[in-house]
Design goal:
The protein is of the alpha+beta class. It contains 13 helices and four strands. Strand 3 and strand 4 form a beta hairpin. It has a four-stranded mixed beta sheet, with helices on both faces.
């Protein structure tokens, strides 16, 4: 049974990885067109094709590999070791052991509003970003529920396309603010409810996540956690964000 579950998990993660590659493609398309037409204007068609393809592949690889680092840099969060946040690391270690995951690196953002996000294009190298408001405002059971929710995204691979979109669709959203809503498609709103259910199947305590989500929604406020372009490019990664309703999910958890 465990082997079948592991195989199914790998298949799902593979599907998410391919989706992530698709979301990281726009810069590659731009590089292909620029490389092709610039070379064609001064040289042979065959050389233009080669230059365009090489430029596209290089740009695609960079957009994919740099996405987690760019997302983390945009948040401005600082890495926190076990000595800095022992409670958070202890919770993560226990949950990762139960879920069969490699423990993510932990980053902390100085902000009184409770919030959390996860980034990564490889489940073995994920990063969890917490605000100081999350650490101070949630009790242990609530933190456990919220952490389990985020780790469920890592286990399912949902975090892959959402992270890849930062460098894939992000440049477009930076130039044209109205297109930032495209990033929400990379996040996959329908998967939030599935992550909630996956989380409580691990913690065995739905009220913990329900109360944690209620605190996140109450503390989100009307202004984005990060301003301007930083907010547009990372808003889809945060668990709570202005305009994103969590109340319906809380009600479902309360009925479990």
């Amino acid at each position: 049974m465990a082997s079948r579950l592991s195989d199914r998990q790998e298949v799902v993660q593979g599907v998410r990885a391919r989706r992530g590659l698709a979301f990281s493609a726009p810069p590659a398309v731009a590089a292909l067109l620029v490389g092709f037409f610039v070379t064609w204007a001064t040289s042979f068609l065959s050389l233009a094709v080669v230059v365009g393809v090489v430029a596209a592949l290089a740009c695609w690889a960079l957009a994919w590999r740099l996405a987690p680092a760019v997302a983390l840099a945009l948040t401005g969060a600082a890495e926190a070791g076990p000595g800095d946040q022992p409670r958070a690391h202890n919770l993560l270690e226990g949950l990762c052991m139960a879920m069969g995951l490699v423990k993510p690196r932990l980053f902390v953002l100085e902000d009184p509003r409770p919030n959390v996000m996860t980034v990564g294009v490889d489940p073995r190298r994920a990063c969890l970003v917490l605000t100081t408001g999350l650490l101070s405002g949630l009790n242990r059971l609530e933190l456990e529920g919220v952490f389990a929710h985020e780790l469920s995204h890592v286990r399912s691979g949902d975090v892959i396309p959402a992270t890849a979109a930062v460098t894939g669709l992000g440049p477009i959203a930076a130039l044209v603010p109205a297109t930032a809503r495209w990033l929400e498609r990379a996040r996959g709103r329908e998967r939030e409810g599935m992550a909630d259910l996956a989380a409580v199947s691990v913690t065995r305590y739905p009220p913990g996540l329900a109360e944690g989500l209620a605190k996140l929604e109450a503390g989100a406020g009307s202004q984005p956690l990060l301003p301007g372009v930083r907010g547009r490019l990372t808003g889809h990664l945060w668990l709570a964000w202005p305009g994103r309703e969590l109340a319906a999910r809380v009600e479902i958890l309360e009925d479990l």
